[in-house]
Each structure stands twice: as C-alpha cells, then as structure tokens.
Amino acid sequence: MGEKIYNKGFVLSGGGARGFAHLGFIDALFEEGIYPDIISGTSAGALVGVLIADGFSPREILKLLNTGSRLDFMRPTLPREGLLQISGIVKILNASLKARKFEDLKIPLHVAATDINNGKAVYFSEGDIIERVTASMSIPVLFQPVVIENIQYLDGGITDNLPVAPVENLCKTLVGSFVNPVGYVEKLTGLINIAERTFMLNMTKEVIEKSGKFDLLVAPPELRNYGILDPEKANELFTLGYNATKEKLRDVTIRRKLGL
Question: Which of 123, 128, 118, 238 is nearest to 170 (CA)?
Fold first, then answer.
C-alpha cells in the first residue's frame, strides 16, 4: 500500500431526507477543527458532499435544502421507469453550485452510483457534477434511471451505501456518517412506502461490514423514526446528527485517533 496522501477523509451514506443528519455531523466536526481533505458520498451523502466540496458550510446547506416541502424535491411522473422526478434538487444545484465539474471543486469528491446495465457500483470523480449526483440519488422504482454515455444509473445505495472503497487506502484518518438504521415498522401501505422500505433494508448490512475501517463512525439509532422521503424534519435531523457526533467526540480513544 502506498503513502496515504490525504489527512482526513469523510464518508457519507445514502438515506434520503435523513441526510440532513450528515450536516449536523459535519458541523460538530468543523467545531473541533476537523475538515475533510477528500469526501466520498452516496445519494444524500453525495448531495451533502458536493455542497461541502464546493465551499458551503453545513448550516448554509441546511438553509439551502430546507425548503420544508417534499414537492420542492420531487414531482410525480407518469410511471414508466420511475414514479417521481428529482427536479427540485437539480434546480437547487443549478442555482447554487459554483463548480460545474468535479475537477473544479475545492475538495476532491467521489460519488457512488449503480450501473444497472452491468450490475456494479461506479465511483464518479470527474465530469459533470449535477448529472452524476442525480444518478447517485435515483432510488429504484421511485426515480427514473439517469443515462450517462448510454449507461443507466440508479442510486449508489443499491451497491454501496457507505462508499469507503474510493478513499480507504488514501487517508490517514477516516470519519463516517451512516444515516440508515432500520427498526421495526408497524404497517406499510402504498407502493412508495413499500419501495422505500425494501430499499432501506438492503442497505443496513453495510454499516456492520465496514465499521472497522473508520476512526469515527456516527450512526444514530433514532434516525429509524424518520422517513427517507420526509424533508419536513430537516432541523430535527440536523440536531440529531450534531448531538450524536458531539457525544462520540467525548470519547478519549476517538479523540486520540482524530488527533484532538
């Protein structure tokens, strides 16, 4: 293994609206003077990652994305390949991002998506940002696949929901935020809820398999009480991620690992 070229790497999981907890996680780390030298993200983690890499602060991103309404993010479509469109996210990114290509970002970024034609995870780190971040966020059944160079892409969470692979051998220290704990659910009704739940269950195994690779991994169990399609609770989710990270940072062993 070669020389570790980055000091700190941030890895951010998928999780829909629960991704607001990533912002609290990052805010707590910034307060301790811990900043990313490289970021890897899936889905909601890709969205947060691209905005951090472009120079926004966690609280600025919260303001930007916290429109309070599900319809600002998603529009129903005639269902051929997906039930919804991610039009709102695209609009926000178009209006806000300074960088248009990965190469222009202030911090190197890797975004995980799933190539459904070849059935494998793909990690984007160059080319057009908005198209690739949208691909990373396209939850199957709910959203239409994004076509890039004749390949159809869907949410990175299908194949890699905690994308440590692109950065694990490059960083001295790795911190991760996982926002997808799955607990008991009373009763599921409706196609969208069932599609959401099925997708979530597939992604939980990630955290158990990969937790050993991190110097700090925050995965608040209370997040199971929040839906992935529920952006109305943005501030609560931010606070939850923030408090869970602050709690972890009290641990002497973790502080030592992070060089605090």
Answer: 123
